[in-house]
Amino acid sequence: MSIRNFIFEMSSKVIAGGGLDAEEAVRLSTASAADRLLLFAEAARIRDHFIGNRVFLCSIINAKSGRCSENCAFCAQSVYHDSGAPVYPLVNEDEMVRCAILAEQDGAGCYGIVTSGTGINNNDELDRVCRVVTRIKSETGISPSCSLGIIDVEKAVRLKNAGMETYHHNIETARSFFPNICTTHDYEDDLATISAAKSVGLKVCCGGIFGLGETFEQRVEMAITLRELGVDSIPLNFLNPVAGTLLEKADNLTPMECLTIISVYRFLLPDKRLSVCGGRERNLRELQSWIFLAGASGTMTGNYLTTPGRPPELDKQMLRDLEMDVEGCCGDYKHDA
Ligand code: SF4
Fold first, then answer.
1. How far is CA 22 from CA 122, 207, 220, 225, 251, in A?
2. In contact, 134 and 167? CB cutoff 8 Å
């Protein structure tokens, strides 16, 4: 079967409610540059079927930066790397709330409080984050989420009771590639955090980062893990190599490769939020708006953890030009298909 017919067959199967296996997903990635335009279009058709012509924006604050004892090869905040990334303790509560208000004004529906480190490790910090979550719930219309590293059920309950709706925790890459990226904690620790969050009824935002040297088979492996975990939204990050990190010289991605990843993820995770986050500007360059034509349903606006994003007004203009609807983060975003 030609690759074009194969793309049509797979998109019809997905829209009919079927799921792709790993081999089928990898074959999609072998399309030529010309045939990838069809792949993107069919991924967008799948998004439109399950979600509609809608997009959501999220924003984050790097609420505690640097000195992380983990050794993630891509990360500027690891103590193993001499990256010059900012180092500071948990920022004060008023500042976290102020940034939530600004994020809401910029159109974000979800605001993530992100801290470096294996986990949030003392009650004082967790108390402060919980207070901020409660204030954001009462003082803004934005949905607060947290990314505080590895947590257990007890911490998940405290965050939920404070008003947090979504916990974010990335698995970063495929299980088979993870030992190449991090050796200071186990993949199972990340999976346990996701289980803890889900077990108390939180929504889970969980994805990973591409361009670390993984194969396309491993990208598909991660997507299938995410499908099995039943996560709610999936951030797709593309490596922006930072000097001083282990992967400072990695330069594995092209814009078309990024768009292919997005599309294949849409085929594999048809009704999930796929949000393009870190590395968008560097890796997509002039093709940034194509992420939505390739099946994405969200993006991060504003700055990333240790690298700057572009002005939010440019993202808003991009979405106006695409004539896509922007919606809040945590409502029911499924389209009545
Ligand atoms: S990715 Fe997270 S856990 Fe890994 S080094 Fe960076 S801050 Fe630490």
1. 41, 17, 6, 11, 25
2. no
303 pLDDT more than 80: no
**Is the beta carbon of 245 within 6 A of some atom in ligand 1?**
no
How far apart (Å, rounded) are the C-alpha atoms in residues 163 and 111? 13
Q: Which domain holds residue 276?
A: 3-327
- Integer Cα distance of 94 and 250 in angstroms: 38
pLDDT at 331 over 80: no
Instruction: Tally helices (H) and strands (E) across the chain.
Output: 13, 10
CA distance 222 to 273: 16
| Burial state string for 234-267 with b = 16 or more CB within 10 A and e = fewer than 16 | bbbbbbbbbeebbbeebeebebbbbbbbbbbbbb
333, part of any domain = no
Contact yes or no for 244/76 (Cβ under 8 A): yes
What number is the average pLDDT over the span 251-272?
Answer: 96
Pocket test for ligand 1, best of 77, 150, 151 (most atoms within 8 A of CB): 77
Here the CATH number for the domain that contains residue 45 is 3.20.20.70
- pLDDT value of position 238: 97
Which residue has the CA at smallest separation from atom 4 of ligand 1?
72
Q: Is the CB of 147 under 6 A from ligand 1?
A: no
Give residue 187 CA to ligand 1 midpoint distance, Å: 13
In a domain, 337, yes or no: no
Taking 50 as the threshold, does the pLDDT of residue 213 lie above it?
yes
DSSP state of 286: G
Domain count, the chain: 1
- How much is the pLDDT for 328? 59
| 16-60: pLDDT as tens digits | 999 999 999 999 999 999 999 999 999 999 999 999 999 999 999
Looking at the domain assignment, is residue 332 inside a domain?
no
For the residues 257-264, what does the mean pLDDT come to? Answer: 98
Residue 334 lies in a domain: no
